[in-house]
Write a structure and sequence with these properties.
globular, single chain, alpha/beta, 339 residues, 9 helices, binds NADP nicotinamide-adenine-dinucleotide phosphate, 25% strand
């Protein structure tokens, strides 16, 4: 095979507050010859996700940060273009942590083969991938949502939130979502079957709005955003409510943490449970959950909302920054090459 050039997006500097295009730099390297046991993947779609903001920082977290001048981390779907690995064939599609680059060599660890005839390739990064799995385990295992209960989800029109609401409906719950534009709110109630939704930026008083939209109180709060929004949900928790702390995106770009009101006493009054979740803790249960999610998807009960940025690898920084700014509806992807 002729030597291929691999264009990559590397971390140029650690962001100070909100990430900027100049925090990234485009680089290119020749693709190294494969070692025995490796395969080479041409990335077709890249997912850009909020957790990447954490990896750009060197604050201590659950995984080490991207090193300075390292290739940005990120899951993608790609095609196997060369293989010295017995488990993968040329022309097959795989999903894995390939990073922000056009080609990735892999020893096969952590890769999942996907069938392009079962669902569009992009679904493996959305409802039928980590996004759907986060919603599934966060709502059903951590949140223990049950039929007849009320679920509130913040960041509801995003990748995870839009699946949380649909799963809550499948399970017979009443679901209320919040999002940052009126068009997103309409999508939630019109397309995705949410019982109610509201624009948290224009509603004024979040607690009063929720009291009206969720008159029976909140049994499960699926928290994607944290901050003042979450503070406003706390007074509405029912006795034995569960709060799945999935994400805190309102806090990710702050230089100094926001002081908040003290509401821990509410956990006593309501005998409520807050639990942080990390999707990687559920890996052994992925196959069963994916089977169930695929069943709902194929039955038309679960829709995958996504937005694909064109423009190849150089479009990744803008797509990522746009997602942090709320410009995405559903899963934000970048098309890196043709399928
Ligand atoms: N714990 C885990 O294992 C795990 C796994 C996956 C994701 N997550 C977390 O889940 C959350 C959602 O992730 P995702 O991939 O589905 O992203 P996403 O919701 O598709 O995209 C991020 C969205 O966050 C909203 N947002 C941005 N700034 C905000 C603010 N200050 N206040 C309220 N909303 C804000 C924007 O929508 P609006 O227009 O509505 O503002 C934006 O579209 C993130 O916090 C992420 O870190 C956690």
């Amino acid at each position: 095979m002729a030597t291929l050039t691999n264009r990559q997006v590397r971390l140029a500097r650690r962001p100070d507050g909100f990430p900027k295009p100049t925090d990234f730099r485009l680089a290119s390297d020749p693709v190294a010859p494969l070692q025995g046991g490796q395969l080479l993947v041409r990335v077709v779609f890249l997912s850009v996700d909020p957790y990447m903001r954490g990896r750009m920082s060197d604050a201590k977290s659950y995984v080490p940060p991207v090193p300075l001048d390292g290739v940005m981390c990120g899951y993608g779907v790609g095609m196997v273009v060369e293989t010295k690995h017995p488990g993968f064939r040329v022309g097959g599609y795989v999903v894995g942590d390939f990073g922000w680059q056009e080609y990735a060599a892999s020893d096969g660890q952590g890769l999942r083969a996907i069938n392009p005839d079962a669902a569009p390739l992009t679904m493996a990064l959305g409802v039928l991938g980590h996004t759907g799995l986060t919603a599934y385990f966060g709502l059903l295992r951590v949140g223990e949502a049950k039929a007849g209960q009320t679920v509130v989800v913040s960041g509801a029109a995003g990748a995870v939130g839009s699946v949380v609401g649909q799963l809550a409906k499948i399970k017979g719950c009443t679901v209320v979502g919040s999002a940052g534009t009126d068009a997103k709110v309409e999508h939630l109630t019109g397309e995705l079957g949410f019982d109610a939704a509201f624009n948290y930026k224009t509603c004024g008083d979040v607690t009063a709005t929720l009291r009206e939209l969720a008159p029976a109180g909140v049994d499960v709060y699926f928290d994607n955003v944290g901050g003042a929004f979450t503070d406003a949900v706390i007074p509405l928790l029912n006795v034995h409510a569960r709060v799945t702390v999935c994400g805190q995106i309102s806090q990710y770009n702050l230089a100094t943490p926001e002081p908040g009101p003290r509401w821990l006493h509410q956990l006593i009054v309501k005998r409520a449970r807050f639990e942080g979740m990390l999707i990687s803790d559920f890996v052994p249960h992925f196959p069963d959950a994916l089977r169930e999610l695929t069943g709902w998807y194929r039955a038309g009960r679960l829709k995958g909302t996504e937005q694909v940025a064109p423009g190849g690898i150089e479009a990744a920084p803008a797509a990522f920054i746009g997602m942090l700014n709320g410009r995405n509806l559903g899963k934000q992807l970048v098309q890196i090459s043709d399928a």
